[in-house]
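Review form for a predicted model. The reviewer records the input and the model, then writes brief findings.
Reviewer: anonymous (R2)
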Amino acid sequence: MNPWIEAAAVFVFGSCVGSFLNVCILRWPLGLSIAHPPSRCSACGLKIPAALNLPILGWVFLHGRARCCGAHLDWRYPLVESLTATLFTVLWFIYPPKLFFAYAVLTAGLIVASGIDFDHLVIPDGLTMGGVVLGISASYLLPELQGKTNPTDAMIRSVLSAALGGGLLFLLAKTASWFLQKEAMGIGDAKLLAGLGAFLGWNSLPWILAISSILGTCVGLAMIFQRKQKLGVKLPYGPYLALATIVWLLGVKFLI
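Model under review:
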C-alpha cells in the first residue's frame, strides 16, 4: 500500500481513538461508564447525531457550537482528537507495526492521564497500575520494547525498570514533602513513572525525570510570576511526565 495512504488511514484511526479518549477523560474520574450512554450534549443532554459526531470535522462544521441548543463546545474535543491522530501518524512512520501499536497504546494512556490530571489533580490506578501490568506483559510478548530478544529477559528488565521508576519518584516525593512540610507530589505520579519504566526500560527514566521536572518548574514559575497561582499551590505533574515521554519516543531514544 502507498505509505501516504497508510498514513492517512492511521490519522483517521487516531482521530477516532482520540474521540474515545475524550469520553474517558470526562467520564472515568466521575465513575461513569465509558461505553453507555452514547455521546450527548453536555448542556441540554440531547443525543448527538452520528453525522455531527465526527472526530475533528464535527467540531469544525458546527463552528464550536452545539446544533441542538447553541452551547459552546469545548475546544478540548478537537484538540485531543487532532493530537492523538498526529502522534499516531508520526509513530507509524518511525516504528515497525508491532512497536507502533505498543507505543500507540502507551500514548493514548498518557493523553487520558494528562487530561484527568489537569482536571482533577489525580491519575486513576486503572491507568497507572494498569500501565505497569500492560507494560510488563507487552515486554514479554514483544521483547523489542526492552531492546531484548529473549522474552524472559525483557520481562525481568521491565519489572526492574518499573520498580526503579516508581521507587525513585516515590522517594523524591516523600523527601520533598518532608522538606516542605506538606504533600509535594501525588503518589499517582510515581505509579505513572513505574508504568513508563515498564514500557520503555530504565534508560528512559533519567530523561523523563529531568525534562518533566524542568518543564513543570518553568510552568509553575511562569504562573507565579503572572500572579495566576500562589507559591505552594499544587499543580499537575502527570502532563509533564507525558510530554517528556512523547519527546523520548519521537526521537530522543535513538540518540541516547
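Findings: Residues 151-180 form the longest helix (30 residues).
Further findings: The chain has a mean pLDDT of 88.
Recommendation: see findings above.
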